[in-house]
User: Fold this.
Amino acid sequence: MRTIPAREIKRRGIGAVDEWVKEEPVFVIKNDEPAYVILDRARYEELLDAAHEAFVAGIKESLEDYRAGRFRVMTAQEIIDELGLEAIAPPPHSA
Assistant:
C-alpha cells in the first residue's frame, strides 16, 4: 500500500493521490503514524457490501444455532467465570 505524508496533501491537495487511489488504497501518514486511508468509491462500496454480507451471514448462523438448540442461557457472571475473566466494577455514580 502506498503512503503519503499529510503535509503533502495539505501542500498539493487531494490531487496528490488521484492516480494512486485508482490502483490501491493510500495510507496518509500524520506524526509518523498511519492516520487515514484514502480509497476510491468503488472499493469503499465493496468493503461496505462485504461487511453487510458478513453481518447477515453471522445472524443466519446464530439463528441456525438457536433453532438447533446450540445455545445456553447464562448470566453475565457465569460467562465471566467460564472465560476466566475479572468483572469490571461500574464507575462510581456521581450526582
User: Anything to note?
Assistant: The helical segments are 6-12, 18-23, 41-67, 76-83. The two ends are 50 Å apart (CA to CA).
